[in-house]
Amino acid sequence: MVKLSKLNRLILSIWSTIVVFVIGVDDFIGLMDYISFDDQNGLSDSFKIVIQYFLFGMSSIYLVQNFFLLFLLIPSKEDQDNILFHENIRDHYGRYSESQAKRLFSIFCIIYCFVFFYLNHILKILPINTIIWIVTFTFPVVLNVMIKINYKKSEFID
To answer: In this predicted structure, what is the pLDDT of residue 50?
Structure first.
């Protein structure tokens, strides 16, 4: 496996922060189209709206955290030695592992995302931003379960 450099991890952190911000703003604009629950057609429409607002609330926390991480990269006049600036850069690249994921997990991630996005495209269940947030929040959980199962299996084999 190839180790990811600090610069690659810093770029990845900044890039993901920008992407999350753009998706969050787009999601917020989309949610403003819903005026009230009374205008919806039944329980399923109301449930979709509740899911969207819940995911937007969760993503807002992530958005604010990422925004502050980006904001803290701006050097301050009080930090003459750039100590805080370098600590903030360490926080950014510290968010990502030095090692890359195994190919099996990467392939699983592609399949996982494809299945969610394809089914949503065909069935038109939820807006695309909502599916993006669902995949963003559920995939790490599913991946951790897979890693633990894989780890347990390797204990039995050894």
So the answer is: 79
Q: Which residue type occupies 73?
A: L
Copy the structure tokens of residue 142: 């599913």
DSSP 8-state code for residue 78: S
Q: Could you identify the residue written with the tokens 């947030």?
A: 133
Contact residues for 14 (Cβ-Cβ < 8 A; gap 6+)? 70, 73, 92
- Burial call 119-156: b when 16+ CB within 10 Å, e when fewer: ebeeeeebbebbbbbebbeeeeeeeeeeeeeeeeeeee
Q: Please report the pLDDT score of residue 122 as a whole number.
A: 95
Structure tokens belonging to residue 47: 């449930």
Report yes or no: 46 and 37 within 8 Å, Cβ to Cβ: yes
Residue 93 identity (one-letter amino acid): Y
Q: How far is CA 12 from the centre of its chain?
A: 12
pTM beyond 0.85: the answer is no
Amino acid occupying residue 81: D
pLDDT per 10-residue tile (average), the chain, 158 residues: 72 79 79 63 71 79 78 70 72 72 84 94 86 87 84 62
Chain Cα centroid distance, residue 33 = 24
Task: Please answer whether residues 127 and 30 qualify as being in contact, where contact means their C-beta atoms are separated by less than 8 angstroms.
Answer: yes
